[in-house]
Write a structure and sequence with these properties.
Blueprint lengths: L1 H7 E2 L20 H25 L3 E8 L5 H8 L8 E5 L5 H4 L5 H5 L7 E5 L8 H4 L2 H4 L14 H20 L2 E9 L2 H13 L9 H7 L2 H15 L6 E5 L3 H18 L9 H16 L1
Parallel strand pairs: 2-4, 2-5, 3-4, 5-6
Antiparallel strand pairs: 1-6
Helix pairs in contact: 2-12, 3-12
Length: 292
């Protein structure tokens, strides 16, 4: 576990470079052992979830970011399988609605933040506002921000302010009991092409294919630069980034589960202890039920 965490954790953005992270890294694991390793990790997470739910001192907000075909959906399905749905929420963020565009860019994400005791999963997140909007700045103009009437109005100061706002939001959430895990599923350009072709060639996966995904592929390098800059500006000790090698889906799931398990264990979770008067009432109820 420690080797994986050391290899993928970014707690300090300064000096971060994506070229230092291999999308095909697998920490010495073999594919034939992956199912057993993953099951062991997921079983431990499942065992901790009731304690997390009962403790209610924390909320856990897990953010998934990736390029198209990066494996977010399958990673969520495999790493969180078996959790009690009562204590888990999943939000998939698409193009902002008219209502969402009438608020600040963090509004819909704060609104979807999980309550204490709940594990909230955000499939895409507030980082879209410094990723897709940076690659396609015309989308930022649509937010109708003061003094941003055209693309030429967007300067580096605009992005620096947005990074600062994101850090302030995450620090605020952390200070108030919401633990944030940020995953970037790092898939190579070559692997992305293979997955697109797989979706085209396999009739059972045709529904996953979108021509717009291929259109966005021409901006792959621009997106990598945007991800790198976002991580450089927003990786902190309180809300680190985890760069998940995603070319091998089976290892990505192991790495993600390792982080979630490590995070839950670090919270020193406890089942609530009843106050003396409540314990006395419980004993009375026990005696009454035993006689009835």
């Amino acid at each position: 576990m420690k080797d994986i965490l050391n290899a993928i954790t970014v707690k300090k953005g300064k000096g971060f470079s994506l070229k230092d992270y291999d999308a095909g890294y697998s920490a010495g694991f073999e594919k034939e052992d992956a199912d057993e390793v993953l099951k062991s990790l997921v079983d431990e997470i499942i065992e901790l979830q009731p304690k997390f739910y009962a403790d209610r001192r924390y909320a856990l907000m897990i953010l998934f970011q990736a390029m198209d075909a990066g494996g977010k959906d399958s990673a969520i399905a495999h790493t969180l399988s078996g959790l009690n749905p009562q204590g888990c929420e999943v939000h998939s963020f698409k193009q902002p609605s008219a209502e969402e565009l009438s608020h600040d860019f963090l509004w819909r994400h704060h609104k979807a933040a999980p309550p204490f005791g709940v594990i909230g999963v955000h499939n895409r997140s507030h980082y879209e506002n410094v990723l897709i909007t940076k690659v396609h700045p015309e989308l930022l103009v649509k937010e109708r921000l003061p003094k941003l009437n055209k693309v030429s109005d967007i300067t580096s100061k605009v992005w620096d302010k947005r990074y600062s706002d994101i850090c302030a939001f995450e620090n605020y959430m952390n200070d108030n009991g919401t633990v944030i895990i940020k995953f970037f599923l790092h898939v190579s350009k070559e692997e992305q092409a293979k997955r697109f072709l797989d979706r085209i060639n396999d009739p059972t996966k045709n529904w996953k294919f979108s021509s717009s995904d291929v259109d966005e592929r021409q901006y792959f390098d621009d997106y990598m630069k945007a991800y790198e800059q976002a991580i450089q500006k927003t990786a902190t000790k309180e809300a680190p980034w985890y760069v998940i090698p995603a070319d091998k889906k089976w290892f990505a799931r192991i790495a993600i589960s390792t982080v979630i398990l490590h995070t839950l264990k670090s919270l020193n979770l406890k089942f609530p202890v009843l106050a003396p008067d409540e314990r006395a009432k419980m004993e009375e109820a026990k005696n009454w039920l035993a006689k009835s």
